[in-house]
Amino acid sequence: METAEPPAEQLSIGEVADRTGLSVHALRFYEREGLLVGPVQRTAGGRRRYTPVDVDWLLICVKLRESGMPLADLKHFAELVRRGPGNETERLRLLDAHQHRVEAQIQALEECRALIAWKVGVYAEHLAHGKAGGLWDPTG
């Protein structure tokens, strides 16, 4: 006897917004812009219904956007995924380029953090010894 697979979990747009941190407006935008890898299903009444796979993909999209991936690159990546197997080299190239940009941003932020930590130390030292006068005094 063959058993039917249970239907995939269906989520409302509000539930997906809660799970991904994206607003309902952003979810509609992602759909309009072709950033999802599959079509969003609809109920008979026209309400969007998402699957856990949609949520997983959106969570990846959120991190790629948070890390500065341009919308055009994210759209291209989604396009490649939708096309299916055979373009993995192009996907890797796109992700590798983004990874290099993120690593450069991290390096720049590390340099900023080091300068700020040094400056905090200078101020803390001067204040601890009651010698704060002269620290960037525009009148002096």
CATH class: Mainly Alpha
CATH topology grouping: Multidrug-efflux Transporter Regulator, Chain: A, Domain 2
Pattern of helices and strands: HHEEHHH
Rg from Cα: 24 Å
- Biggest sheet: strands, sense, closure? 2 strands, antiparallel
Any guess at the CATH architecture? Orthogonal Bundle
Structural class: mainly alpha
Overall domain count: 1
- Unreliable runs: none
Total number of helical segments?
5
- Count the E strands: 2
Describe the structure.
By secondary structure, this protein is mostly helical. It has a single domain, classed as Orthogonal Bundle (Multidrug-efflux Transporter Regulator, Chain: A, Domain 2). Helix content is 61%, strand content 3%. The protein has a two-stranded antiparallel sheet. Strand 1 and strand 2 form a beta hairpin. The relative contact order is 0.09.
